[in-house]
Amino acid sequence: MKEYIAPPGPLQAALPTAIPINIPGLTFAQSKVPTGPAGPPPKSAPTKPKYKPPRLKKKSSPPPKYIRPSTPPPPRHANSSSPHRAPTGPKHDEGPHKRPASGSGGVPNPAPAYLTQALLEPHRNPQPRRILVVMDLNGTLLHRPNHRRPFHFIQRPHATAFLSYCLDTFYVAIWSSARPENVERMVSQLLTPEQRDRCLLIWGRDSFNLTKQDYDSKVQVYKRLTSVWSDPRVMAAHPSADSGGRWDQSNTVLVDDSQEKARSEPFNLLQIPEFVKPSDEPPNVLPQVHDYLNTLAHEADISRFVRRSPFKLDPNYTLPQDPVDNTA
């Protein structure tokens, strides 16, 4: 997916100090006459000067009129019979995302305290713990091949088994930038009603506090994990909530295909390749994410470990074989 790049400032062009004027025929009409002392012409001289300006065969044409250039037609689609038909395809893939308005929160940066903590050395705990996994949907667990069919999704290989494991092993929150009605369809395809109830939260586009204009346009959104950590249900789910325990950068991971969305907490991102279609899918993506999450469960601070050892796909990874039963 293409990511948002803030546009440069406006450019100011210098105006020319003078505009040269060129009128056709003027050069010939102003030929120089030899200069010298003035005096009366000789008696034999004709009444008119000998020099005559050359006769032009054709009348000089006036300067051409300015014609406003017409707007060029949209490029022709390869499979279109009409030369004025715009290219077809989902709007999601056309150009970069726009910068969010200040009313939508603008573009965040990591807090200094966050960076200070993430730059410390990682430390591994002997026993694993239940961490908080914030899961993306579209592009991570599913793919919508045709935006004209907004409720038709293709699951990433191993998606349901992977999500079921996460619900059994960790705390899971679902956060998608899709509209709520699309989130509802994706969740219904992936989870049973019982599994859905076990999710700490299920958020869609309406959770980003966007302005109405940004909500309805292709704007870059940012998943500020502080919004998740301050949610009452998420706070209450912490295993040590009664004694002051809280969710933070040490125990939370965001699984997403977009690096830009994790701009506020970059070292809590487990970034995976965007799922576009099964034929382009690297082998065993989600099983490798499964193993990496198990590694994070042993870390005292997830942000420190991810900064030092971010997630990378292993092209030689193979699924573990089921144990062979020799008792039969």
Question: How would you describe this protein?
Answer:
- By secondary structure, this protein is α/β, with parallel strands linked by helices.
- The chain has a domain of 181 residues: HAD superfamily/HAD-like (Rossmann fold), CATH 3.40.50.
- Helix content is 22%, strand content 7%.
- It is built from ten helices and seven strands.
- The chain has a five-stranded parallel beta sheet. A two-stranded antiparallel ribbon has the order 2-3.
- The longest helix has 12 residues.
- The chain is globular and about 55 Å long.
- The relative contact order is 0.15.
- The N terminus is likely disordered.
List the helices and strands and how they pair.
Elements: H1 26-29, H2 112-118, E1 132-135, E2 142-143, E3 154-155, H3 159-169, E4 171-175, H4 180-190, H5 193-198, E5 202-203, H6 212-215, H7 225-229, H8 232-237, E6 252-256, E7 269-271, H9 285-296, H10 302-308
Parallel strand pairs: 1-4, 1-6, 4-5, 6-7
Antiparallel strand pairs: 2-3
Domain FCP1 homology: 126-296
Function: Essential component of the TIM23 complex, a complex that mediates the translocation of transit peptide-containing proteins across the mitochondrial inner membrane.
Subcellular location: Mitochondrion inner membrane
Concise synopsis of the structure shown:
By secondary structure, the protein is of the alpha/beta class.
Strand content: 5-15%
As residue ranges, the low-confidence spans are 1-38, 63-94
Which fold does the CATH topology of the domain at 128-308 refer to?
A: Rossmann fold
Please give the order of strands in the largest beta sheet.
5-4-1-6-7
CA(first)-CA(last) distance: 51 Å
Please tell me the CATH architecture of the domain at 128-308 by its name: 3-Layer(aba) Sandwich
Text of the CATH class of the domain at 128-308: Alpha Beta
Major sheet summary line: 5 strands, parallel
Task: State the order of secondary-structure elements, H for helix, E for strand.
Answer: HHEEEHEHHEHHHEEHH
Q: Estimate the helix proportion, in percent.
A: 10-25%
Structural class: alpha/beta
Give the radius of gyration. Answer: 35 Å
What is the averaged pLDDT score? 80
Total E-strand runs? 7
